[in-house]
């Protein structure tokens, strides 16, 4: 007996979705760790704003990790839970020693660019598999992340001009 049997989803289509979700899970785990490092190591002019923002972002990433793992389970997959395995497949690389706010934000923007591309791929696979729940999850992530990207780009745009 499998959960997917009750969801009226084709197992072969769902398997592709699960693989995409597993990739996102690995990438989000590394992203979470990078955000923690940025939060701990940030210094300088933007400290107060960025320290709090990075905390909000790593809390959000932790929530997404849980959602992704649970969705993998719902679709009959088994989420990885060893960081050593995440590092083998994650396309996001570990970053450490970043204390400059602008550098940290640029790393985050690059990561969001990658994640948004991967989420669009999973959304497409989920749509082909008639997996509306995963489509909705990815759509929610995209909506939130597109706004965050806009805000981070605005943050980096510099001082106000008179």
Explain this structure to me?
The chain is mostly helical. The protein contains six helices and no strands. It starts with a helix and ends in a 6-residue tail after the last helix.
What is the fold's blueprint, element by element?
Layout: H1 3-6, H2 11-41, H3 47-74, H4 83-89, H5 101-128, H6 132-156
Helix pairs in contact: 2-3, 2-4, 2-5, 5-6
Question: What's this model, at a glance?
Answer:
With 162 residues, this protein is an all-alpha fold. It is 76% helix and 0% strand. The mean pLDDT is 95.
H and E order: HHHHHH
Proportion of β residues?
under 5%
Count of alpha and pi helical runs: 6
Distance between the termini: 67 Å
- Mean pLDDT across residues: 95
Low-confidence residue ranges: none
Query: Globular, elongated, flat, extended or rod-shaped: what is the shape?
Result: elongated
Key features of this structure:
162 residues, elongated, 6 helices, mainly alpha
